[in-house]
Amino acid sequence: MSNRAVCREASHAGSWYSASGSQLNAQLEGWLSQAQSTIRPARAIIAPHAGYTYCGACAAYAYKQVDPSITRRVFILGPSHHVPLSRCALSPADIYRTPLYDLRIDQKVYADLWKTGLFERMTLQTDEDEHSIEMHLPYTAKAMESHKDEFSIVPVLVGALSESKEQEYGKLLSKYLADPSNLFIISSDFCHWGQRFRYTYYDESQGEIYRSIEHLDKMGMGIIEQLDPMSFTNYLKKYRNTICGRHPIGVLLNAVAELRKSGLEMNFTFLNYAQSSECRNWQDSSVSYAAGALIVH
Questions:
Q1: Which end of the chain, C or N, has fewer beta carbons within 10 A?
Q2: Beta bridge partners of 292
Q3: What is the pLDDT of residues 104-161, one digit of tens each?
Q4: One Pfam family for this entry, by name (predicted)?
C-alpha cells in the first residue's frame, strides 16, 4: 500500500456549484440563514443533489438540523446515475476535495464494510462522474466547519437494489445509525416530470400539472414520514414516481425499522419542498426537491 493519498477531485465545481471557496461559502451561508433549525440534532437527513441554483435553498432546511458538536462521522448514501450497479459500492479515494476544505474518508469503517463482502469498489472515474454524493460535500463541509478536523465521511454509492437487498443493507447500517455521533445523509431528488424523463403522470383533479406533481410527491413524503419501508415500496410500485434516491431512502427506512424493533423511537419530518419550475403543459419538465430530518428520541 503506497502512502500517497488518493484524492477525488471536486469534478462538478465550476458547473453545478461555484468553484470559488469564498463565493460558495457566502451562498451556503445565505441559504442556511433563511432556514430554521427546528428539529436538531438530526440523525439522518434527506436532501436533493441538483445544481445549487435549483436546490441550494431547499437543501439548507435539512443541513440546518445538523449538530456539528456531536457529529463525528457522516455517511453519505447516493444513487448511481451512470453505472449499472446491483449492490452498493465504496470509493477508492482517501480524500474528497471541496472548494471549502478537504474531507477525509473513514478507512476504519470502510474496512469493516468491505469485510462483509456486500460491497463493490467503484473506480475513481465512476466516483468523479457521479454527482449524487458530491453535491452533499460542500454542504457537509459548511455544516461541520466548526469541528472540521474532528469528523470523517463514509460515502456509499447505492445501486438498483431489490427489496431484500434494501433490507440487508438497512440491517447492516442500522448499528451505525444507532450511534448518536453518526449522521446519515440520504441523497435524493423527487419527481422528474416530463417527456424527457419519460414520466408524465397527471391527476386532473389536482388542477395544474405542477399541483398534481406536488400532490404525488407529498403523498410519497407522507409515507416516508411513517417510516414504513413496505408502504414506500408499494407507493413506488403503484405510481412509479421518479424519485432517483428511492434505494438510499429504502435503505434508511429499513435501518430505522430494524432499530425500532429494539424500542428506539424515531421521527422523520419534511421541512421544505420545491420544484425547479411549474409545469403547466405537456412540453414542460421539472424536478422536485425535498428536505427533511430524522430525530431519535
A1: N
A2: 46, 270
A3: 999 999 999 999 999 999 999 999 999 999 999 999 999 999 999 999 999 999 999 9
A4: Memo
Q: What is the pLDDT of residue 294?
A: 98
Task: Tell me which residue has cell 428539529.
Answer: 39
* CA–CA separation, 256 and 91 (whole Å): 25
Model confidence band, residue 266 (pLDDT cutoffs 50, 70, 90): very high
Domain-wise residue ranges, the chain:
7-296
